[in-house]
């Protein structure tokens, strides 16, 4: 892998994190009943 | 029914589940070519080969992590710790990843992994190799904790644990691998997790025991019946988490007295939790304070006499029953 490949991977990682952060910021707080959801399958 | 040792019942469960489900595989130190440190995996590598029975390096954190990852990817690993004492090295993977992955991923990643091996004391293996760790693991939401005391329970509970979609802490007992009992045959035989078993019916006092203390409690119950004509009921929760508190409470409503016998240390133990839940749900039914027999509050000594002194035994359980029955 060359420098350009690493740069592309970093770019994709930053984009993924930015997208997740935007989604989290724009989402409402979870419903209170979710406190005990998905503790066990 | 066949009469098997607990060791062979576990082996039968593993063999049946490997055949039943192509996603099941075993990994751990010496589980393959050496047949397992305690021979629980005897013959399985020869029968099923390298992909289903995998020897690992001596790196508990590493192979526990592989187990968690494999489970997240859809396999059903059975990870053997040579003893649960060594699981302390892998606790980060068990507690921080296996127990929490489903919750932290919003339900996206199940972790159907079984961690199993011998728990508790053996014979003079001293402080670092004699620990009963059930309370430690039971404290973390996301883990199920299982402790069989008979060959049939060992087989049925291990099969259910392998089929369960949650990480399961499966705690065997080194002193008990050679104990024999009748074991139902066939791949359909399972025992559901979270269901206690009444090992001996009685009317005057309840003993809740698990793992190594179950046979001790049964001996104590027979002795008390003979000497004092007191009828003791012995309950084995079999699964520590989820705990079948209803079976315990229903017994106390009948006997009005409770003794808890456990191999772990007393402070913040499973016995302490059971005592709390009984107080919460059946306080008015108790005719005497709850008594608890545990291992002495000290690291396990190597000296034979001190080891015996530290551990629960039949005379200690008998004395506790006499105390709650005011004999």
Summarize the structure.
Chain A is mainly α and about 40 residues long.
If you had to describe this structure to a student in words, what would you say it looks like?
The complex is a heterodimer of chains A (41) and B (327). By secondary structure, chain A is mainly alpha-helical. Chain A contains one helix and no strands. The longest helix of chain A is centred in the middle third of the chain and has 24 residues, at 3-26. Chain B folds into two domains: 2-183, Rossmann fold (3-Layer(aba) Sandwich); 197-324, Rossmann fold, CATH 3.40.50. Chain B is built from twelve helices and 14 strands. Chain B has helices at residues 6-20, 44-48, 60-72, 91-98, 101-104, 134-138, 151-163, 213-228, 245-255, 270-282, 304-310, 314-324, and strands spanning 2-5, 24-28, 53-55, 76-80, 114-119, 144-146, 168-173, 180-183, 197-200, 205-209, 232-236, 239-241, 258-265, 291-295. In chain B, strands 3-2-4-5-7-6-12 form a seven-stranded mixed beta sheet, with helices on both faces. In chain B, strands 9-11-10-13-14 form a five-stranded mixed beta sheet, with helices on both faces. The A-B interface holds A 37-41 and B 102-103, 105-107, 110, 112, 141-142, 144, 164-166.
Query: C-alpha Rg of chain B, in Å?
Result: 20 Å
Secondary-structure-derived class of chain B:
alpha/beta
Overall mean pLDDT score of chain B?
A: 97
- The quaternary structure here is heterodimer
What's the order of the H and E elements of chain B?
Answer: EHEHEHEHHEHEHEEEEHEEHEHEHH
Output the CATH topology of the largest domain in chain B.
Rossmann fold
How would you sum up the major sheet of chain A? Answer: none
